[in-house]
Amino acid sequence: MTRLLKHTALAALAAAVFAAPAFAAAPMVKTPAPGYFRMMLGDFEVTAISDGTVDLPVDKLLQGVKPGQVDAALAKSFLKSPLETSVNAFLINTGSKLVLIDTGAGNAFGPSLGFLLQNLRAAGYRPEQVDEIYITHMHGDHVGGLMAGGARAFPNAILRIDKHDTDYWLSEANMNAAAPQMKDFFQAAMATVNPYAQAGMLKTFEGSTELAPGIRAQAAYGHTPGHTVYVDESKGEKLVLWGDLMHVAAVQFEDPAVAIQFDSDSTPAVQQRVAAYADAARGGYLVGAAHLSFPGVGHLRGAGEGKGYVFVPLNYSSLR
Q: Among candidates 49, 204, 41, which has minimal Cα distance to 135?
């Protein structure tokens, strides 16, 4: 009799549990945490900031590939085209100066981008605190975030860009001579950079130049006429920010010779990428790029003779 009562009680309890309301059935949030990642580089604080992601038809954009190469390379990384592609910027606090490298797309590429200011604030900084902005090149997903609501988004910042890029993208003669599909690139560059020039805040440089203690511009022309990478060094630690030296990790690390339609001149762009990969693998220093999967920072190592390179993302640390 006791056993029968026990089974009856268990059955009643189970029925009560399954009949109870499902409190876990709350609406799905469907939004990520704020997009920033912070690390130390010697005495520098580096914050990678996400501007969001954008779907790119990389199977149509990449050039110099064999039939099926792009799809096969993407599949090896459990990816496919269109590829959800990160747009990253990097904030460097040297202790005496706050430097932002690239600004994201602003409102130029739709609702999945344009989160840089929001994530900058989430990271504990305000736009008016930025002292200088260094632009890798003047494509819209790198300069679009310079403006917000018709005003300069960074009201106190000096804007630094290689003169080869400003001479090219701010020229109405070049815009008028460009192919129709390129005119939007010129218009976006003019709309975002000219307000800084008119305010006396645009300061150009040419070639490899030290811009601040520990931060050096390094010419990497090809992707655009003035494309620049930025070398950051503190206490023997080094981070090279590549801008658009590469776009599609799953394809271009394995085969650095693959180019992309966005290149102004693909031949030097490929040469710059090949040299940068070899130097990063040889030097063992950190690299970061605008279109590596966020936060876009890690190391490069060779994959063996003729097999390209392997990107090793930075190990996550909550202590940095």
A: 204
